Amino acid sequence: MSSAELGAGQQRLDDYLRRVSDIQQRAEETQAQLKALRANVSSPDRSVTVTMAPGGRLEKLSLTPSAMRMSPDQLAALITETVSRGHAAVAGQMEATMQPLIGGTSAMDFLRDQVTAAQQPEETEEPQQRQRPPQHPDDDEPTGSIYR
Description:
By secondary structure, the chain is mainly alpha-helical. Helix content is 56%, strand content 11%. Strands 1-2-3 form a three-stranded antiparallel sheet. The longest helix has 34 residues, at 3-36.
């Protein structure tokens, strides 16, 4: 191998290592930014305020005296709605923070999918009441009997 080829190979290696170092530095900066994210969201009447941290962690919940005059169901619904809006706000901040690092990649698509899925209300399965088939009044055998 000639010294020119060695020099060109060394240059490519140096460029590659520089790019890797830049990516690592941007990733560390992004990680620090993500840890610092917070979303402060208030209900429309300002009686409920939440502070959401990354990952959907509720960091702070504040209630005003007017919130305490609501019925338990009204207050619970208002807190739930405000927390949901807080989740959406912090998720938007996370996406904006990650955009320079992974925007336009399948990793960003995955992040968006996870955020969207986390914001969907959980479906609660209510136990279905089993309906018995109607019995005929002149039948003395129960429905499903082996004698039918």
